[in-house]
Design goal:
The complex is a heterodimer of chains A (350) and B (440). Chain A is α/β, with parallel strands linked by helices and 350 residues long. Helix content of chain A is 34%, strand content 21%. Chain A has an 8-stranded mixed beta sheet, sandwiched between helices. The radius of gyration of chain A is 22 Å and the shape is globular. Chain B has 2 domains: 240 residues, Rossmann fold, CATH 3.40.50.300; 92 residues, no CATH class. In chain B, 37% of the residues lie in helices and 17% in strands. In chain B, strands 6-7-8-3-9-10-12-11 form an 8-stranded mixed beta sheet, sandwiched between helices. A 4-stranded antiparallel beta sheet of chain B has the order 2-1-4-5. In chain B, strand 9 and strand 10 form a beta hairpin. The longest helix of chain B has 18 residues. The chains are: A alpha/beta (350), B alpha/beta (440). At the A-B interface, helix 5, helix 6, helix 8, helix 9 and helix 10 of A face helix 6, helix 7, helix 9 and helix 11 of B.
Chain lengths: 350, 440
């Protein structure tokens, strides 16, 4: 399978040219997505996860945005080389997006049916009546009760969770090969979130599509991901199978993210400091200024290359996994020591 | 001012918003945002108020501080009823009770330096000496982990987490006894949430504050609250010590909420019980127990033998029949979309019945033959557009206490309180009738 992934993102760089300088929102990231697979991109706000997902179909505002470098190979074709017209045939058809705010994705002055029918008829040559029947079928499949009646309702007549179902139905209308969902459940209550996550899983089984799911919530990742890409400040920190990420997290940032989840009582630990400037990012590992284990070498040169951690397919960008370093030192810190003690510990170990 | 009284005691608090129509603004209904909640907060205690959006948490907060006038009920602060206060007394009360909001950006004036913002409550409450104000503000900023030199900087120079720290400093400036925090960590990144929560509990300990902490995030509530009250549609359905409520939830709604938190263990995925539907409108709350329209453990009528999931589906159907929310033309169109039939005239009754059954996830035949005959009769009537008859026969045959009687708040075996008919002595519930999740 890995020989021919559906999507292969290689060394992607997306920048925004602003008055204050060039913001390197995505700074050379690579990952791939197999057919029928769910890949989660996880990170804090400002890590570049949304820009990554929007760069795939180039829906970032250009200018000020620019895809400065890299390739996005989708089913054998490089999307970065395509003209806007060619890309438009793929957007909404073979690659569909679902966003955080369903309100913003629906036009308030048209019925939901009209909007989905329009989406179908842009890409497929079918009659209005056929498109309407397909729409009712879709609304039913995403779990909207009485689809035949609700098709003629306006967006305001739906609750937040139901609106997100409508948006998902619209995204599925052309049976895409890849669904890109950017925080689709973040604006919803936990009980509704559970419904939507289950729905996405069921639809994936039914349609066999691949999903890129962007989120900051590790609980959601554990619920749906096959593989995980952990991003920080425009770089990939770690990527691998979901079980490895949760059971043997390799990068200090991933470990810190797992420790700051709510619901752990006194075990819970914040990550000190804040995200670095993306105009003038720090030398070395982007996470080094906040890392409890950082040593002098971490602050030198460029982001360390992806190294294999223990298992094939589980890769990490941290110098502790390079020759001459001992990655087991990363385990000693935060369990028993406070962050400041761990820092001195890391300093001496060099 | 009795010393024994809790710091804050809320009794049967109600806040209804009238729905007005016509040129004379006649009242045609009311939104029962908060509908009779009672709780108390001691000095040094944190009470967590948790529930889905729209359940009335924030209205409860603003009403108990009289930022909005309550419709009914008492709010005793130090044993004195604040709903009786006149303007002067109210202003004095405002000094002792402070509020922190979710969005730290909109709670600061962008044109005021943070020093001015933090000092504003002091000025309002009569501290006219500018130098002393400045000294107090510097001290406060340091206590919340900022630097005293930040005093002349402006809100846009700070991150969200820092602004929330400054908001805390402002709340503390007038030495309050009570802080009401409405989702104070929800707008922050998870990586810094823990810091703000820690700061709130440190300050609480230092100043002996009572804290009402409102959040939709059960994880956050579990971390910070001593006691927790779970709200649903304007009512408190369960309340007790945090650990007890989380370890042994007694109300099906609490169980469902806790179950819905995605577990950070990929090997436990898909274990959650799914709660169907959305929160009903507080303008027209369901009869009996307000949760019965979504409750996975809704009590079965006597004399029938259902699968619990089939019973839940039948209840969903019954609710929609009663409110006439089944659209026959829509279903007909759905059948046309799903099958080869093209003419609406050609859609058969059986096809309609099957479509309704699948829409509500009702099995083709119920395991109980008697129940099946009631149901298929009702389905037949619905297809013939005889909603009232269908509704009457369903209500008569499938009467459940959950839909008819409002449950009382009772002390459960676990030691804390919940309002659910499953804990009703007068209703006999065999252990087997509850679904598996309730056993833990």
């Amino acid at each position: 399978m890995s020989d021919d992934p559906l999507l292969d993102v290689r060394d992607l760089k997306t920048q925004f040219h602003t008055d204050d300088g060039t913001v390197r929102a995505v700074d050379g990231i690579s990952f791939d997505v197999d057919r029928g697979e769910t890949v989660c991109i996880v990170g804090e706000s400002g890590s570049g996860k949304s820009v990554t997902s929007e760069s795939i179909t180039r829906i970032i505002p250009i200018p000020p945005g620019e895809i400065a470098d890299g390739e996005v190979i989708f089913d054998g074709q490089d999307l970065t080389e395509m003209s806007t017209d060619q890309l438009r045939k793929i957007r909404g058809n073979r690659i569909a997006h679902v966003f955080q705010n369903p309100q913003g994705a629906l036009n308030p002055v048209y019925t939901v049916g009209k909007q989905i029918i329009e989406a179908i008829r842009i890409h497929k040559d079918v009659s209005k009546q056929e498109a309407r029947e397909q729409t009712i079928d879709l609304l039913d499949r995403v779990g909207i009760p009485e689809a035949g009646k609700r098709i003629d309702d306006y967006p305001y007549e739906f609750s937040g969770g139901m609106k997100q179902r409508v948006v998902i139905a619209m995204a599925l209308s052309c049976q895409p090969d890849l669904l890109i969902a950017d925080e689709p459940t973040t604006a919803l209550d936990v009980t509704i979130q559970a419904q939507i996550l289950r729905l996405l899983g069921d639809l994936q089984d039914e349609f066999g599509m691949s999903i890129i799911f962007v989120t900051h919530d590790l609980g959601v990742v554990a619920e749906i991901a096959d593989r995980v890409v952990v991003m920080y400040a425009g770089k990939v920190m770690e990527r691998g199978d979901v079980y490895r990420i949760f059971e043997n997290p390799a990068h200090p940032y991933t470990k810190a993210l797992l420790r700051c989840r709510p619901g752990q009582g006194s075990q819970r630990e914040a990550i000190r400091g804040s995200l670095p400037s993306m105009i003038d990012p720090p030398d070395g590992c982007r996470f080094a200024p906040r890392c409890p284990h950082a040593v002098e070498d971490c602050r030198d040169g460029d982001q360390p290359p992806m190294m294999e951690a223990e298992h094939p397919g589980h890769e990490v960008s941290c110098i502790f996994y390079q020759d001459g370093f001992d990655s087991t030192q990363l385990d000693s810190g935060p369990e028993g020591l406070s962050a400041s003690e761990a820092r001195t510990d890391g300093g001496e170990s060099r | 001012m009795s010393a024994d009284a809790p710091l804050l005691e809320v009794r049967n608090l109600k806040k209804h918003y009238p729905i007005q129509r016509g040129i004379f603004g006649g009242e045609v209904g009311r939104i029962r945002a908060v509908d009779g909640v009672s709780f108390s907060v001691e000095r040094g205690e944190t009470l967590g108020l948790v529930g889905e959006s729209g359940c009335g948490k924030s209205t409860a907060a603003t009403t108990m501080l009289r930022l909005e006038e309550p419709t009914d009920g008492d709010v005793l602060f130090d044993g004195v009823d604040i709903t009786e206060y006149d303007d002067r007394e109210l202003k004095r009360f405002r000094r002792r009770a402070q509020m922190i909001f979710q969005d730290p950006t909109s709670s600061f004036d962008p044109r005021m330096s943070i020093g001015e913002s933090v000092a504003e409550p002091l000025r309002i409450h009569g501290m006219s000496d500018g130098n002393r104000r400045r000294a107090i503000v510097k001290d406060l900023l340091e206590r919340v982990g900022m630097s005293g030199d930040d005093i002349d900087r402006y809100p846009h120079e700070f991150s969200g987490g820092q602004k929330q720290r400054i908001a805390l400093a402002r709340a503390l400036s007038v030495n309050p006894d009570l802080i009401v925090a409405d989702e104070p960590a929800s707008a922050l990144d998870v990586s810094i949430q823990a810091d703000i929560l820690q700061l709130i509990s440190d300050l609480q300990e230092e100043f002996g504050l009572g804290v009402v902490f409102i959040s939709h995030d059960l994880g956050v509530i579990r971390d910070i609250a001593d006691n927790v009250a779970v709200m649903y549609l304007g009512e408190i359905v369960e309340t007790g010590p945090t650990e007890q409520v989380f370890d042994s939830p007694q109300h099906p709604y609490t169980r469902a909420l806790i179950d819905s938190i995605p577990s950070p263990n990929p090997r436990e995925r898909g274990m959650a019980v799914e709660l169907t539907g959305d929160v009903p409108s507080p303008a027209n709350p369901p009869s009996g127990c307000r949760f019965h329209t979504r409750c996975p453990e809704v009590i079965q009528p006597e004399g029938y033998d259902f699968e619990q999931s089939a019973w839940r589906s039948v209840m969903n159907f019954r609710t929609k029949v009663t409110t006439r929310q089944i659209d026959l033309d829509g279903i007909r169109e759905f059948v046309i979309a799903e099958t080869d039939v093209t003419d609406p005239e050609d859609v058969t009754h059986d096809q309609m019945v099957d479509a309704i059954r699948s829409d509500f996830d009702i099995p083709d035949t119920l395991s109980d033959p008697e129940a099946e005959s009631v149901l298929s009769d009702a389905l037949e009537r619905v297809v013939r557009d005889e909603f009232d008859e269908a509704s009457a026969s369903l209500a008569e045959a499938f009467e459940t206490v959950c839909a008819t009687d409002s449950p009382d708040m009772v002390r459960t075996e676990a030691g804390h309180s919940a309002s659910c008919h499953l804990h009703d002595q007068s209703v006999e519930v065999e252990p087997g009738e509850r679904i598996a999740q309730s056993d833990d």
